């Protein structure tokens, strides 16, 4: 059937058969008639924009005659109502397409023909009340009026609606059509609209609505005098009092007010309409009409503000008149803004923002200040804005039973209501912050008074969790118990006040006064503006008010969030830690009745204790851990496994429990805590986790556990909880500037032993269950934390960890593991060299094995391709981390040296030449650059391989040779790798041949490949790395380096080794000779060009040579 329909559409005469089908008597099925119209539409559009293609004139003429005949016979009676609405709408659209293709050249009477079918007279010129009264309403055909309005609506949609995309030819045609219609046809339409409003407003309100709607959309491009005249305005204004039509009349006036005009003309329009007076006389009860009137007031205000502030196109009298009208409108705007429904309030947001912006600009002018009326407006506006910040009394909060745990931070699920209210608050905050800039004293006074009154009333009468409104005639009169709505507002105002202060001056709770150079003291904020002292006072009042005792889910999270956001408060109010921490541990804190609130507060508690000074925590440690102990019970939920693996959404409630575990670790870390107490508490935390993990492990065999998701998840949770506790302890301090030894340990020996015992258990479980992704994930997290806290004491676990992980890990896991290894080598540097040297080959073998495995399989899927790219990037980044940590010697130990070229062959031959991934290309050449520097230019390790900042380079350059930081040599010593080591020397020799035979040719091959685009920014970075590689190889070719004169290299102060131009005697430079006499001639370069290239390579700095090299490749590719 579908194929047949398509063949009909494609047939040259298919439209004719469909035209007959559509107009046939008796009528065919609605579905077939709809298809017929679609075929006719296709024919019309195929006739071209101007209806002059494919012999269209005859087709369009036949179609027009048939459709007009159909409309005149079928749609002029009650049968019109029986026609399906979708058929009527589609036919109106078809006739519109027909008109667009033929008006005015072939169908100049388009509008006149359709109006004639309505029974309305053919009238031009401006409509008058007399002309409308002379119309015989009995002769008007309401069915045809409705169809005419459908056609005119479709005409606007096709010609004017900005949402419809149009080509240049269509836009030009539409402009011509509008010009032609303006001659007489628009006037005809205006007569129709006016007559319908006069005669049918009562009997056919839907037709009157249609007329008003069309007036609104057509006013943007027709002569406004056709509808803005006394007869029209009078009838439209009268309709503002008609319940069925007032909303549409309001929309119509809004469009009229928004018509594009010059500012003086717009002022004349607004004065003619007396629109501000009309708005003041309207009474509106229902919310929809109030919103419509608000939008009209908003449009009027925006236009008046433009005229008032427009100094170039308006006279001073115009400016003054516009402002006078705007000032008269301001009380009405305040009324809309204070409306109980947010839809009405938000309808005037635009004009409120425009007025405030204008006030701000006025105030910024020299010697300019706001008038008394403007200040009075702000003084009334500010309390309205503050009051609108509160929730509505009937806001639908979920009950404790309905609330659910949301994201990893346990936030409440934000539905549409919450999202809309959050957006409303953001808009109101913008207005309030603007007032803070214009009138800081007013801002300060209003915000503080409102919040302080709330906290005082809460302190005196308490807060209701059940009731939204205040007791005993609420509204803040202070005579009864506070409703939760205003209690929440007090906390929100405190937060808003602090955020304003933070964005304006930064939060520094350092006392009430700041000393000035002249010895005087000033407030922490400008005169009358927000101050640290006031914020501190508000936070103190919120504590003393007891507002946090309110069980409503809106209160406690905001209360605790304020003390997390403005944690500096406790630097000057240390006595406040106790009541706030007590509240955290109370019934409305970590034990809140709402589950979603409860877990969010766990997150806030973690942030709270984390930001407190460690020295002050010891006194709370025992009570803290006792209070949270029963919340630490772990219950694995296997249903979360799929979510965690597939969507990365975590493990449900357990993710929030981790905040509690880490908080416990933080509370155990203070050095002021007695070690016996710490040990007791640590055992109290660890023992259930140890015994739980051992119980699962002993309950069945490893094979059985691997088949049981719940058991695996339970063990995963136990291990991760241990890691989270350890995460609360501070990282060990490592001095990596010399030989990387731990500085004095903050952990006591007994604490370290407990952590090492945990590490033993963790690694034992991993070695038993290496095939489980969950166990690998948990073990990597926990043992990485052990390394951070224990330092070198945990390094012996690293080989066992890596062996177990590498044996079974997937591609994405290996990428994460490489990142972890990079951090380890960077942190411990020479200290980790022996361990890193043992891990090198197994890890590299795993990387290349997975790359080959994925490459040989199906990598057509986007996910697989991305995983492959991530692994390549992670691998190269890890190799770079080894070099930047000055651990290049791990490649040269006995077990690794024979494989040196094998390791780097894929980097130079595959990763560096893959033009589809320029980021990896750049990394690959960076790795090669480091390797050449390490084993060809400075094989004695006198210079760091890490990137030097200018300041660090200057420092090292001025340091005596004997005092140099030589981490590379320290790493070699840790590996017992002497300067004369035969295996290392042979490996460097093989590497040199590899560089000349593979790396250097690749430097010329890569930029000339078809997929390499020199103009691309990423490719440009690759070229820069290639240029650096070539210059480093040239440096290695200098005779004093190539001959092994290490005394010369040692005497060379950094960063000369890294800074071209290279210079030197090119006749004695091995690499220069290789380039000029071997490689470049083999690539087709004449001798003179080769000599010029080598000279440029030696004499230009990095930036200059990169530019030269790019031009050389482009010109000679």
Automatic annotation (TrEMBL):
One Pfam family, short name: Exportin-T
Family note: Belongs to the exportin family.
Signal peptide: none
Residues of the Exportin-1/Importin-beta-like domain: 84-253
PANTHER family documented for this protein: EXPORTIN-T, EXPORTIN-T/LOS1
GO BP: tRNA re-export from nucleus
Protein name per Swiss-Prot or TrEMBL: Exportin-T
InterPro entries named among the record's database cross-references: ARM-like, ARM-type_fold, Exportin-1/Importin-b-like, Exportin-T_C, XPOT
Organism superkingdom: Eukaryota
Domain Exportin-T C-terminal: 319-1034
Subcellular location: Cytoplasm; Nucleus
Function: tRNA nucleus export receptor which facilitates tRNA translocation across the nuclear pore complex.
Alphabetical keyword list: Cytoplasm, Nucleus, RNA-binding, Transport, tRNA-binding
GO MF terms, alphabetically ordered: small GTPase binding; tRNA binding
GO cellular component, as recorded: cytoplasm; nuclear matrix; nuclear pore
């Amino acid at each position: 059937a579908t194929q047949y329909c398509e063949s009909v559409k494609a047939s040259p005469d298919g439209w004719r058969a469909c035209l007959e089908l559509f107009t046939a008597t008796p009528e065919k099925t609605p579905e077939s008639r709809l298809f017929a119209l679609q075929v006719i539409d296709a024919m019309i559009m195929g006739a071209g924009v101007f209806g002059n293609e494919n012999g269209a004139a005859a087709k369009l003429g036949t179609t027009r005659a048939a459709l007009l005949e159909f409309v005149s016979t079928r749609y002029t009676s009650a049968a019109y109502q029986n026609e399906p609405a979708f058929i009527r709408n589609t036919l109106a659209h078809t006739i519109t397409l027909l008109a667009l293709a033929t008006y005015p050249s072939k169908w100049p009477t388009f509008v006149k023909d359709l109006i004639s079918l309505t029974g309305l007279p053919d009238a031009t010129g401006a409509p008058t009340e007399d002309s409308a009264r002379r119309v015989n309403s009995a002769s008007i055909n309401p069915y045809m009026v409705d169809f005419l309005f459908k056609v005119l609506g479709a005409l606007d949609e096709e010609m004017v609606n900005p949402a419809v995309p149009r080509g240049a030819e269509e836009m030009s045609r539409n402009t011509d059509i509008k010009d032609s219609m303006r001659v007489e046809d628009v006037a005809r339409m205006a007569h129709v609209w006016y007559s319908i409003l006069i005669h049918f407003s009562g009997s056919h309100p839907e037709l009157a609505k249609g007329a008003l709607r069309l007036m609104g959309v057509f006013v943007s491009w027709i002569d406004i005098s056709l509808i803005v005249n006394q007869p029209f305005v009078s009838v439209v204004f009268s309709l503002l009092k008609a319940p069925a039509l007032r909303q549409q009349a309001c929309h119509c006036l809004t469009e009229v007010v928004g018509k594009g005009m010059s500012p003086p003309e717009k002022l004349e329009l607004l004065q003619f309409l007396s629109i501000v007076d009309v708005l003041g006389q309207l009474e509106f009860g229902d919310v929809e009409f109030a919103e419509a009137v608000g939008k009209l007031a908003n449009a009027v205000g925006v236009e008046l503000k433009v005229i008032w502030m427009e100094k170039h196109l308006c006279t001073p009298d115009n400016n003054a008149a516009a402002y006078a009208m705007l000032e008269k409108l301001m009380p009405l705007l305040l009324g809309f803004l204070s409306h109980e429904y947010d839809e009405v309030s938000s309808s005037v947001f635009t004009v409120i923002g425009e007025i405030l912006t204008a006030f701000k600009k006025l105030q910024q002018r020299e010697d300019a200040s706001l008038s008394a009326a403007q200040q009075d407006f702000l003084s009334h506006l500010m309390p309205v804005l503050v009051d609108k910040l509160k929730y509505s009394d009937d806001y639908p909060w979920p009950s404790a039973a309905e609330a659910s745990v949301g994201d990893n931070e346990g936030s409440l699920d934000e539905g549409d209501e919450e999202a809309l209210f959050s957006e409303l608050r953001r808009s109101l905050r913008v207005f309030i912050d603007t007032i803070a800039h214009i009138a800081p004293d007013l801002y300060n006074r209003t915000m503080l008074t409102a919040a302080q009154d709330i906290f005082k009333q809460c302190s005196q009468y308490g807060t209701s969790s059940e009731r939204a409104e205040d007791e005993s005639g609420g509204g803040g009169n202070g005579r009864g118990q506070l409703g939760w709505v205003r209690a929440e507002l007090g906390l929100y105002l405190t937060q808003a006040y602090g955020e304003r202060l933070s964005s304006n001056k930064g939060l520094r709770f350092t006392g009430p006064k700041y000393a000035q150079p002249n010895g005087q003291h000033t407030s922490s904020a400008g005169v009358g503006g927000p101050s640290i002292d006031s914020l501190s006072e508000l936070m103190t009042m919120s504590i003393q008010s007891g507002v946090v005792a309110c069980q409503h889910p809106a209160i406690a999270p905001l209360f605790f969030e304020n003390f997390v956001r403005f944690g500096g408060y406790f630097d000057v109010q240390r006595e406040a830690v106790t009541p706030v921490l007590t509240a955290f541990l109370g019934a409305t804190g970590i034990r809140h009745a709402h589950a979603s609130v409860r877990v969010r507060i766990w997150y806030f508690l973690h942030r709270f204790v984390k930001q407190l000074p460690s020295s002050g925590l010891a006194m709370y440690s025992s009570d803290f851990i006792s209070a949270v102990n029963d919340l630490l019970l772990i219950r694995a939920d296997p249903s979360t496994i799929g979510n965690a693996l597939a969507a990365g959404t975590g493990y449900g409630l357990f993710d929030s429990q981790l905040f509690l575990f880490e908080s416990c670790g933080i509370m155990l870390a203070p050095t002021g805590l007695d070690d016996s107490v710490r040990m007791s508490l640590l055992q109290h935390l660890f023992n259930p986790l140890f015994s739980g993990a051992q119980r699962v492990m002993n309950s069945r065999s490893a094979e059985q556990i691997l088949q049981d998701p719940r058991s695996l998840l339970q063990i995963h949770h136990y291990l991760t909880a241990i890691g989270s506790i350890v995460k609360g302890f501070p990282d060990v301090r490592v001095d990596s500037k010399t030989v990387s030894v731990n500085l004095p340990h903050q952990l006591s020996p007994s604490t370290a032993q407990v952590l090492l015992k945990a590490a033993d258990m963790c690694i034992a479980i991993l070695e038993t269950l290496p095939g489980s992704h969950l166990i690998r994930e948990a073990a990597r997290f926990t043992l990485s934390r052990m390394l951070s806290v224990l330092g070198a004491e945990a390094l012996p676990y690293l080989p066992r960890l890596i062996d177990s992980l590498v044996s079974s890990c997937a591609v994405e896991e290996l990428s994460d593991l490489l990142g972890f290894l990079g951090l380890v080598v960077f942190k411990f540097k020479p200290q980790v060299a022996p361990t890193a040297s043992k891990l090198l080959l197994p890890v590299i073998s795993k990387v290349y094995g997975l790359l080959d495995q994925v490459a040989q399989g199906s990598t057509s899927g986007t996910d697989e391709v991305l995983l492959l790219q991530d692994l390549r990037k992670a691998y190269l980044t890890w190799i770079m981390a080894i070099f930047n940590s000055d651990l290049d010697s791990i490649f040269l130990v006995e077990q690794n040296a024979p494989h040196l070229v094998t390791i780097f062959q894929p980097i130079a031959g595959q990763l560096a030449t893959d033009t589809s991934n320029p980021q990896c290309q750049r990394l690959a050449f960076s790795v090669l650059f480091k390797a050449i520097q390490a084993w060809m230019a400075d094989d004695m390790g006198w210079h760091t391989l890490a990137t030097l900042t200018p300041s660090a380079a200057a420092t090292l350059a001025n340091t005596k040779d004997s005092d140099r930081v030589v981490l590379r040599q320290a790493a070699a010593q840790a590996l017992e790798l002497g300067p004369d080591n035969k295996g290392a020397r042979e490996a460097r020799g093989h590497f040199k041949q590899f560089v000349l035979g593979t790396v250097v040719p690749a430097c010329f091959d890569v930029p000339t490949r078809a997929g390499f685009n020199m103009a691309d920014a990423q490719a440009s970075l690759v070229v820069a790395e290639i240029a650096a590689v070539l210059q480093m190889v040239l440096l290695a070719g200098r005779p004093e380096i190539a001959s092994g004169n290490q005394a010369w290299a040692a005497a060379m102060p950094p960063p000369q080794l890294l800074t071209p131009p290279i210079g030197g005697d090119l006749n004695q430079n091995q690499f220069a000779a290789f380039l000029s006499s071997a490689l470049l001639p083999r690539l087709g370069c004449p001798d003179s060009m080769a000599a010029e290239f080598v000279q440029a390579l030696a004499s230009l700095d990095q930036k200059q040579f990169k530019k030269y090299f790019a031009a050389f490749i482009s010109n000679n590719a």
